[in-house]
Design goal:
heterodimer; A: alpha+beta; Ubiquitin-like (UB roll); five-stranded mixed β-sheet; B: alpha+beta; Aldehyde Ferredoxin Oxidoreductase,  A, domain 1; Aldehyde Ferredoxin Oxidoreductase Protein, subunit A, domain 2; Aldehyde Ferredoxin Oxidoreductase Protein, subunit A, domain 3; 3 domains; six-stranded mixed β-sheet; 25 helices; SAMP1_3 (chain A); Beta-grasp_dom_sf (chain A); Mopterin_synth/thiamin_S_b (chain A)
């Protein structure tokens, strides 16, 4: 599964897009666990002390932030879904 | 005046008579409206809301707040306040750099300019005095050459030059003032008002004379606490760590595109797809970034200086590739060439045009061309970079069709017989957030007192979850609660714009930090509740001005595209902006009657007796 990273996350993963080998029916939460296992430095960027995604971190599945999907971070990612992960971003 | 912190000195300049008078600030006004934006609007109300923006009777205010130029973080801000020739509303537009601090160090809280000079002039501000000087030598010059001229005349040390360029001289309705080569008070056409008065520049010479707080004992902890919030790694302001510091404002380009909230090709669609990456902050950092300049008292350094490495503009070094102009002249125009984006922004900085607004007449022309509305005119294709550069010059010089486009997007759309192509509110083009994907921006644009604007109520802070320390996160696609949310943002920002602190301080500081710094500097009591009340008063003052200027019931709207044409892109697919629902919520929170402030509200807030 391909995952796109942005902004300050890119130097940590070493590029824009990283391929992760996950099984079928992987959920958003499970994918995040796989990601931080492979890139331990991402743990403190993405997850709070309780192991939940920070509110300012965005894991988009087809452009929709995972917490707002009907099943939240338990949403199963389908083949062909676009996954984008952003740190805190703002400006104006 | 009993209040501390202020210079308590305003220069009243009459360009018709060629005179300058110096007066203090009415204490009641300072207490009610603070400074910068709020105080500037109070002077505008006194001058009369019916004034023709381009008549000598219009007032042009260069206003500081009581924190400007102090040790307060992000306090290098000045508000230019006037009646806008683009919108017909009162407007205020802020810039960073050092001119605001130097104006304070030179002994002023503000300059109020009225009348019209008999020939081109500039104001030379130094040592507590303002001199009206002949500017015929620089009239016609671009801003970069104008700055160079004054640096040679007065020496570069301790000097700030705020100038208009040929666009202001030619009365382009979205002409702006540019400070120190590239820090623009961009929005609302304040530079056009300068041009109408034959005022070319404000030149300020002053060494650092840091103002002292009225309550020194309270000031130090207040300033230290505010700094700690900015430096904290949990906030995006964190120097060299947070996204805003590392990539600048353009760190937004990819996320708004990915979530279907990036107005693209005159807002026909809500995402620029893979092309967003090519004009993003990440791309800029990887390919053309050369420096990270900053402003007075700011550790964030969000400005991004670039150097073009190839192509027709190879060697051009400029700042700053910000999110808003990169969107306006990039995605909005179907242009994914970052070098051309940088070139066009630099042209705006030199001609003195609002780089957000410029994209609007261009994209209207492009959509009109695509739809066959140009009546045999040669047209303008999406992303035609060379044609965009030439058209920018024609607009600044009012040549050919550029003479029409210089009056803005609405005039351009009317010219082609299709006013619905203008993505404007009250004449001003929308900024870089599509309200079908970020609903809060819809109600914020519609109810902004200066026409479409993202900075009156920066709801993406909540909709993207970047409030200080993650204190609030709301669904960008939900409309419920956004009317009330926008009111709170508008009131808090009206207060910070009147201090005058950079808007980005709101990513780290809350009303508590604002209240503590203001109270200590000025020597009054101030609570977070007072911050909201004073901000509400300022917002209502502006709305009262606009009501008197003719903006009555029904003046708060959005272009029909946002409320009637559903998004077709991932992230916001199928969504329109539910403006009517949010307006009802907003007016209930404000106590307004369909956009008009009732007298009872004006009395409650102490705006009228």
């Amino acid at each position: 599964m391909q995952v796109n990273f942005y902004a300050t996350l890119r130097p940590i993963v070493g590029g824009r897009t990283v391929e992760f080998h996950v099984g079928e029916h992987v959920t958003v939460k499970q994918l995040v666990d796989v990601i931080v296992e492979r890139f331990p430095r991402l743990r403190k960027e993405l997850l709070n002390e309780d192991g939940n995604l920070y509110p300012h971190v965005h894991v988009f599945i087809n452009g929709r932030d995972a917490p707002y999907l009907p099943n939240g971070v338990e949403t199963v990612i389908k083949p062909g879904d676009t996954v984008d992960i952003f740190p805190a971003v703002a400006g104006g | 005046m009993a209040l501390g912190g202020y210079a308590n000195r305003i220069a009243h300049v009459d360009l018709t008579a060629g005179t300058v008078e110096y007066r203090g600030i009415p204490e009641d006004w300072a207490r009610k409206y603070i400074g910068a934006r709020g105080l500037g609007v109070r002077y505008m109300l006194e001058n009369g809301p019916q004034v023709d923006p381009l008549s000598p009777d219009n007032l042009l205010c260069f206003m500081n707040g009581p924190l400007t130029g102090t040790e307060a973080n992000m306090s290098g801000r000045m508000a230019i306040v006037t009646k806008s020739p683009l919108t017909g509303t009162v407007t205020d537009s802020h810039h960073g750099g050092w001119s605001a601090a130097r104006l304070r160090w030179a002994g002023f809280d503000g300059l109020l300019v009225k009348g019209k000079a008999s020939g081109p002039v500039y104001l030379y501000v130094h040592d507590g005095i303002v001199e009206i000087m002949d500017a015929s030598e620089v009239w016609g010059k671009g801003i970069h050459d104008t700055v160079k001229f004054f640096r040679e005349r007065y020496g570069e040390k301790d000097l700030s030059v705020i100038a208009i360029g040929p666009a202001g001289e030619n009365l382009v309705k979205f002409a702006c003032w540019v400070n120190e080569n590239d820090r623009a008070s961009g929005r609302g056409g304040t530079g056009c008002v300068g041009g109408s008065k034959l005022l070319k520049a404000v030149v300020i010479k002053s060494a650092k004379k840091m103002p002292k707080a009225a309550n020194l004992e309270a000031w130090k902890p207040a300033q230290k606490r505010a700094l700690a919030t900015i430096m904290d790694e949990r906030n995006i302001t964190s120097p060299r760590k947070g996204g805003l510091s590392v990539y600048g404002t353009n760190v937004l380009m990819n996320i708004t595109s990915a979530m279907g909230a990036l107005p693209t090709k005159n807002s026909m669609v809500t995402s620029f797809g893979p092309s967003a990456e090519k004009i993003s902050g990440e791309y800029v950092k990887e390919h053309i970034l050369v420096d990270d300049p900053t402003c007075h008292a700011c550790p964030v350094a969000c400005k991004k200086e670039v150097e073009i490495k190839e192509g027709p503009w190879k060697g051009l070094r400029m700042e700053s590739v910000e999110y808003e102009p990169a969107w306006s002249l990039g995605a909005n125009c179907g242009n994914d060439d970052i070098n051309t984006v940088a070139k066009l922004i630099d042209m705006c900085n030199d001609y003195g045009m609002d780089a957000i607004e410029l994209g609007h007449p261009l994209s209207v022309y492009m959509e009109a061309t695509e739809r066959g509305y140009t009546n045999g005119d040669g047209g303008l294709a999406w992303g035609d970079t060379m044609a965009m550069v030439e058209m920018a010059r024609k607009i600044a010089m009012r040549e050919g069709i550029g003479n029409v486009m210089a009056d803005g997007a609405e005039a351009t759309a009317r010219y082609f017989g299709h006013p619905e192509l203008a993505m404007t509110v009250k004449g001003q083009g929308v900024p870089a957030y599509d309200p079908r994907g970020l609903k809060g921006m819809g109600i914020a644009y519609a109810t902004s007192n200066r026409g479409a604007c993202h900075l009156r109520a920066y709801t993406p802070a909540a909709e993207l979850g970047v409030m200080p320390f993650g204190s609030l996160k709301v669904d960008p696609l939900a409309w419920k609660g956004k009317g009330e949310l926008v009111k709170i943002f508008q009131d808090v920002h009206a207060f910070s714009d009147s201090l005058d602190l950079c808007k980005f301080s709101a990513f780290a500081e809350s009303a508590e930090e604002y209240a503590a710094q203001y109270a200590a500097m000025v020597g009054v009591e101030c609570t977070p509740e007072d911050v909201l009340k004073i901000g509400e008063r300022i917002y209502n003052l502006e709305r009262y001005y606009n009501n008197l200027a003719g903006f009555r019931e029904g003046s708060d709207y959005l272009p029909a595209r946002f409320t009637q044409e559903p998004s077709t892109m991932p992230g916001s697919e199928g969504h329109v902006c539910e403006l009517d629902e949010m307006l009802a919520e907003y007016y209930a929170a404000r106590g307004w009657v369909n956009g008009v402030v009732p007298e009872s509200k004006l009395r409650e807030l102490g705006i009228i007796d």
